[in-house]
Amino acid sequence: MEDARVAPVLTARRAGMIACTECGKVHVPGLERCTRCGSHLSSRDVTSLQRVWAWLGAGLVVYVPANVYPMLRTTLLGKTTDSTIFGGVVDLMHHGSYGIAGIVFFASIMIPVAKFIAIAYLALSVTHRVKLSPGKRQHLYEVVEFVGRWSMIDVFVVAILASLVQLDFAAAINPGIAAISFALSVAFTMLSAQSFDPRLIWDASEEPEQ
Amino acid sequence: MSLADVVAEELPPEINPVLPPPAFTAEQAEHLIACPLCDTLHEEREIAEGETARCARCHEVLESPRRSAMTRIIMLALSALVLMVAAMFFPFLELSVAGRVQRSSLLDTILAFSSGMTAPLTIAMASLIVILPSIRFLSLVYVLAPMAFGHRPARHAEFFFRLADHLRPWAMAEVFIVGVAVALVKVAGLAHLSIGPAFWAFVALVLVTVLKDNFMCRVTVWKTLESRRS
Ligand SMILES: [Zn+2]
Ligand SMILES: [Zn+2]
């Protein structure tokens, strides 16, 4: 469809049609569900932004205990030490595993924080003028959608360690309460990103130039 | 009426404006396809196998049919299911400290959270690593197998294909593999650790999943489903 390079483009909304976001089929208004795939139809998801902010808020709230409380509780020869997410990264660096420390730091600290900022920015860009072009913002949205699940790495690490190092050894590792709040925070931000209707990114750019 | 004729008018940028009267009839709309990400309309044309059609505005892939994609997806999904069963029951990791060996299967890993305050995480772990990926593989086989053999689509095939699509971000097998790598390094100082056969089954599972998702073109499957229904 390279020949369709007409500017400005015609969207389903401007043509008074409703497009299915699951299968791409174009419908005349008035239908509840897509006749091809059965998905719910709406020209624009009106509650999209509300749900984005609600999930994002929930994700932020549980992100705080995830960083304050211990993620791992290690018992070595009767002595118990707690380590938080950040403490775990520092420990790895002390052992000289800089690469792995980098992966954990990136997945557990950088990605969640960057995701919070990126989602808030995208949601604000729908109602406010921003510098980034719609094309770049959609790219940002795709990166956020792709990268979010990788934050789960640390939760998996805790589970693997806890199952491997059992009580009958001199050492025991147990999951801490932060594992739950961190997993929830990742899930909530994923839901927040999924609630965003990317078609909203382009609508503001269709506004006539003043 | 062509696309360019309708582009003339402007619309206010509210989230939910009143739609203008429809520019196309239902029959004309049959020959249109909208970009699922940015809503841009395109005139539909035959896309040859191996070709990729992209959105004119945002360059999102609209359609990319591949030769005998359905049979390949079914084969890959079936292999993924077999590998999943193997990964579940063979030893996954082995840890030895002072002559004693601790074997841990995928099941043990999942059950690691089953005591105390972190019990809810057990269900979440089981879902992310085993249950959701398995549901995806089963749904794809259920939807695609009858069509690959030239039959009508199975009952509720639409529902199961939507399910497989929606579950995609929540099936986290590949994230788990990276978690294993990090865990290996963390325990390295404490004890001697070796990798069991289930680990390699799981790595193969991840590769098969990635291959399968690359072959799959959502719009092509939907169009095939629709044409086989009527
Ligand atoms: Zn549809
Ligand atoms: Zn597009």
UniProtKB/TrEMBL annotation, chain A:
Locations listed in the record: Cell inner membrane
Provenance organism: Alloyangia pacifica
Chief location: membrane
Gene Ontology CC: one annotated term: plasma membrane
Residue ranges of the TM segments: 52-72, 98-125, 146-165, 171-191
Keywords, sorted A to Z: Cell inner membrane, Cell membrane, Membrane, Transmembrane, Transmembrane helix
InterPro entries found in the cross-reference section: PqiA-like, PqiA-PqiB_transport
Protein known as: Paraquat-inducible protein A
Pfam family membership, one: PqiA
UniProt keyword annotation of Ribonucleoprotein present: no
UniProtKB/TrEMBL annotation, chain B:
Keyword Ligase (UniProt): no
Membrane-spanning residues: 73-93, 123-149, 170-193, 199-221
Domain of life: Bacteria
Keyword terms of this UniProt record: Membrane, Transmembrane, Transmembrane helix
InterPro entries cross-referenced by the UniProt entry: PqiA-like
Protein name: Paraquat-inducible protein A
Species assigned in the record: Alloyangia pacifica
Top-level taxonomy: Bacteria, Pseudomonadati, Pseudomonadota, Alphaproteobacteria, Rhodobacterales
